[in-house]
Amino acid sequence: MDQAAELRVPPERMKSAPNPGQQIRVVSVTSGKGGVGKTNIVVNLAYALAMRGKRVMVLDADVGLANVDILLGLNPQYTIQHLLNGEKGLTDILVKGPGGILILPASSGIQELAELTREQRIHLLSAFETMDRKIDILVIDTGAGISSNVMYFNVAAHEIIVVVSPEPTSITDAYALMKVMSLRYAEHHFNLLVNGAKDNIDADKVFEKLSMVAERFLNISISYLGYIPYDNHVKKAVKQQKIVMERYPEATVSRSFHVLAEKFLKTSVPITSNRGNIKFFWRQLFKRDDLEKR
Ligand SMILES: Nc1ncnc2c1ncn2[C@@H]1O[C@H](COP(=O)(O)OP(=O)(O)OP(=O)(O)O)[C@@H](O)[C@H]1O
Ligand SMILES: [Mg+2]
User: N or C: which end of the chain has fewer CB within 10 A?
Assistant: First the structure.
């Protein structure tokens, strides 16, 4: 029996469905420790969602070097910086990735978002206004750690996926991240995704360990999104600058991304009407000055 068969998406569902409510789901993918697999998760989750008819945009908000575009072997000419300078429009800087996902290569301009003039903010907001009807889900690769840049994106998102690997340092750093998010930014709910686990028992242990201490010592709740197994196909795909789901669709890890996407779509988040538009998201980001004072 071909186990992957039931996970394959029928072709009729590959077509983009309209987004009548114009509500965008904004999810940030973050981690305490670096190198735990965020960028791989962002692009594969985005791809799996696109295969289910969702129109997905990926925002690369990581100022580090291992960027989304490199992982995908894309060579974007422009970044958000060109948009902010007024040199280019949003459609000029967006890059199409596998499965038709849209990538906003923001990384090199991301730190400037803190110092935008009023004019630049309005410019950015109006550029994104047109996107409200064109995307269903925005997935953000935040980079690792507890820097304010990472925090701002997490706060502005509707939901936060904390990626953790089974290594003890990754677990303690995930705890530290959730602690800062809850104490300084009043975030009390997190979704946990274990990456690089041997099997479900290995992954469950990580979730139990973390949720037990976090729920006891921090005033937060953690939902378990499941796990992505350790699989050498990921490294092979990275070397070829392809995403594993596209290059090795039958690999165990690719099947896990389908399961993750299904689970993600099943968990609905209550989004109040104005929170669901993308302008709201950027406005939240601009409020970073207020956040600093919290
Ligand atoms: N499930 C997995 N199985 C095997 N290798 C993996 C898996 N997930 C990620 N990797 C490997 O781990 C490395 C780091 O992955 P990735 O760049 O996605 O991490 P990251 O959290 O985005 O890192 P950074 O914090 O530097 O941005 C990559 O070389 C990738 O091949
Ligand atoms: Mg990364």
Answer: N
